[in-house]
Write a structure and sequence with these properties.
This protein is mainly alpha-helical and 448 residues long. 77% of the residues lie in helices and 2% in strands.
């Protein structure tokens, strides 16, 4: 747990350090001020939709891919630790070690290749890490024998994650083919202006399928593991809700995977499928008892999924081509920046939700005192504020032809950034308390 928490803090901290506000600090410590292909345009002090140079744009998109996988694998490693400690104990030690190797290989290979030294060896290390992670998940799924509906839900999450990983593997291996490589990059660049332009490319559709399913199932898995740390209220409603979660995540995953083969029709099905899953997990979050901070995090996370992701996503989806809720339609060039901002904010909220729930579960494993409550509630307050604020930035600005994203925007400057600061303080205090808790447990074990 200590390794996972430290890796997560380090990787996210590295990403923050590379953001435009830290250009001066990077110069002081010897890091490159600007990265090749960066969307940041120093002439206007803001970010473009995509770098106009195709080669530079490809470098930027590859960095996103490698960094995102590094974050995802680290959070998945931290999540599997919770699963093994709850359900397998020492029987899962080899799986845990294999997953640690996977995480170290993925993170080191991905970050070094993306930001320091673009050598094929490091890309191979990255790919090997993903392969080790798939093997660890396969071994875990073979050994796990659930005995109740909560366990069957967790088993389904594992199976769906492996299926999504297989699709990602197909996409990655297909991308190595030069003929596929060029068409996929073109679709990625075009889709940043209008996702319709990527729909005809099977590799773009498989990417959409892969990423939607993986994040939805991973969030469901960490939610279920948080529930397993608490006590479920008895009764038919709890049992029915668990079955609804099972059905919801299955439908969500199938809708996402269908995008690979079918395209637009299945893509439109993702939103109602997601609504069913979030409705089920929200209901279940009210059926748990135990540590109040974790219960609050589960309820807050599910509510944010509604008002920060699902409902805005549905409004955007129905307003893409005809202006039903916004004027003009999102596919009008007047709104191209807003849809891109929504997509980016959408994924940030999802990943942050996963990380916040993990951090609070980890904190509760070693410390549930007054300071832990302060750390937990600071994190939750900052998370709620930033998630709502970024929606105001995405959807609350007036329409206009594309202007590079301003870093002094009123919503960013007065809501999002202060709330991110509060969340960061909560996470920092959580990490310190976790370190102290681990140290105390270590001393106690030595005395015993």
């Amino acid at each position: 747990m200590l390794i996972a928490f430290t890796l997560a803090v380090a990787i996210i901290g590295f990403g923050i350090l590379l953001s435009p506000p830290f250009r001066g600090f990077r110069s002081m410590i010897g890091l490159p001020i600007d990265l090749y292909g960066s969307r940041y345009n120093p002439a206007v002090g803001a970010a473009e939709i995509i770098n106009p140079d195709p080669e530079a744009a490809e470098a930027f998109l590859s960095r996103i891919t490698l960094y995102y996988h590094s974050v995802f694998l680290t959070l998945l490693y931290a999540t599997l630790i919770l699963f093994i400690s709850k359900y397998m104990g020492e029987r899962g030690r080899d799986i845990l070690d294999l997953m640690l190797i996977s995480t170290i290989f993925t993170v080191s290979g991905g970050i070094i290749y993306a930001y320091l030294y673009r050598d094929f060896f490091w890309h191979g290390v990255f790919i090997s890490g993903l392969a080790f992670g798939f093997l660890a998940g396969l071994l875990l799924l073979i050994r796990f024998r659930p005995n109740n509906i909560l366990g069957y839900n967790i088993q389904l999450s594992g199976f769906l994650l492996l299926l999504g990983g297989a699709i990602g593997g197909w996409l990655g291996s297909s991308f190595m083919n030069p003929e596929n490589h060029e068409s996929f990059i073109e679709a990625l660049i075009a889709s940043r202006f209008n996702p319709d332009l990527g729909e005809e490319n099977i590799f773009w559709r498989s990417l959409t399928s892969h990423e939607h399913a993986m994040i939805a199932v991973a969030l469901t898995l960490v939610f279920l593991l948080a529930v397993s740390r608490l006590k479920l209220k008895e009764g038919r409603l709890t049992k029915a809700t668990l079955y609804l979660v099972y059905f919801g995540q299955l439908i969500m995953a199938l809708a996402s995977y269908s995008v690979w083969f079918i395209g637009k029709v299945a893509h439109l099905a993702i939103t109602p499928a997601a609504l069913l899953l979030i409705f089920a997990t929200l209901l279940l979050s009210f059926r748990v008892e135990g540590w109040r901070v974790l219960r609050t995090a589960l309820v807050a996370g599910n509510i944010i999924m509604w008002i920060g992701v699902a409902i805005p996503g549905a409004l955007v989806a129905v307003s893409l081509r005809s202006p039903r809720f916004f004027t003009p339609a999102f596919r009008d060039p007047l709104w191209d920046w807003a849809e891109l901002a929504y997509n980016i904010g959408h994924w940030h909220i999802l990943l942050t939700t996963w990380g916040v729930v993990l951090a609070i579960i980890y904190l509760g494993e070693v410390n549930r005192g007054t300071l832990s409550k302060i750390a937990g509630y600071l994190t939750i307050i900052g998370y709620i504020g930033a998630s709502l604020g970024i929606n105001l930035y995405m959807l609350g600005n007036p329409p206009g032809y594309y202007i590079p994203n301003p870093y002094d925007n009123i919503y960013l400057a007065f809501i999002v950034e202060p709330m991110l600061g509060i969340m960061a303080m909560g996470i920092a205090l959580t990490y310190i308390l976790f370190l102290r808790g681990v140290a105390r447990k270590g001393l106690l074990m030595k005395r015993q």
